[in-house]
């Protein structure tokens, strides 16, 4: 009985650690995404001439972000923003906005 309880406790501890590991990056990604709201609107839904980015295909968003970063796509300010992130961080942002409702 004690062994079973020990295994259950160990399993729960591992699961809790796993949840924390998955949650921390999500919090960071949401913090980055919040800065995008200044131009692209809350959740990426723009109410201005600036394009909405919510619900777009992840690969399309990522391709554009990487093109901005590498000065391969003309921009007014996006190239400067994109250069502040690693490719992996841009991937996380693209994933985040692709899951936002249209």
What are the main properties of this structure?
102 residues, mainly alpha, 4 helices, globular
- How many beta-strand runs? 0
Mean pLDDT: 85
- Sheet of most strands: none
Residue windows where pLDDT falls under 50 for at least 5 positions = 4-12, 14-21
Residues in β-strands, percent: under 5%
SS field, number of helical segments? 4
Order of helices and strands: HHHH
**Backbone CA Rg:** 19 Å
Shape: globular
Helix content: 55-70%
Instruction: Supply the helix-strand structural class.
Output: mainly alpha
Distance between the termini: 52 Å
Protein name: Cytochrome c553
Domain Cytochrome c: 21-101
InterPro entries: Cyt_c-like_dom, Cyt_c-like_dom_sf, Cytochrome_c_Oxidase_Subunit
Signal peptide: 1-21
Task: Explain what this protein looks like in three dimensions.
The protein is an all-alpha fold and 102 residues long. Helices cover 67% and strands 0% of the residues. The protein is built from four helices and no strands. It has helices spanning 2-40, 58-69, 78-82, 87-98. It is globular, with a radius of gyration of 19 Å. The chain starts with a helix and ends with a helix.
What is this structure's SSE topology?
Layout: H1 2-40, H2 58-69, H3 78-82, H4 87-98
Helix pairs in contact: 1-4, 2-4
